[in-house]
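HOLO CASE FILE
Compound: fe (ii) ion
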Amino acid sequence: MANIKYTVPGMSDADAERVITLLQDRLHAANDLHLTLKHVHWNVVGPHFIAVHEMIDPQVEAVRGFADDLAERIATMGGSPKGTPGSIVDNRTWEEYSLGRGTTQEHLGALDLVYQGVISSYREGIKELGELDPVTEDMFISQTDKLELFHWFIRAHLEDKGGSLSTEGASSEEDAAQSAS
Ligand SMILES: [Fe+2]
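Model generated. Tokens follow.
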């Protein structure tokens, strides 16, 4: 519970507290994602190293920007954004990224699953925010638009000329990494 003392005009405290909870969940997801993407940037190896290494950094920067916008929206609504590493680990509902040094295809396969999880959760949030707060919904929609674009950048490396994904049906990052390589 956010325990707010004030919020934006025209919104009940109860609604604001729910919106803050949704924002905080996305803040943890964005902080986790930009750190994970940087980890991939550092750990990819193989013949396509430089292309993938350099593709990742603009994604890191964009997702760091998403985190900043989410956190400032929490503060705007009267909440207190949590951005410490411990709070991410304590509150996240997903597992730590599982690959260390790996080929570009292995990491791209695993990132396909990472993006699937993050984007699906954004869409859940959008559904709920349509009623609760269209202003926050708009932020979620614009961030999802970019995340889906980045996901396509990943998937274009995993797609054959018939349009099939090598990671189709993979249920874990390891599984996806193996299918992709
Ligand atoms: Fe770098």
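CASE NOTES: The mean pLDDT is 96. The first strand starts at residue 44 and ends at 45.
CLOSED: yes
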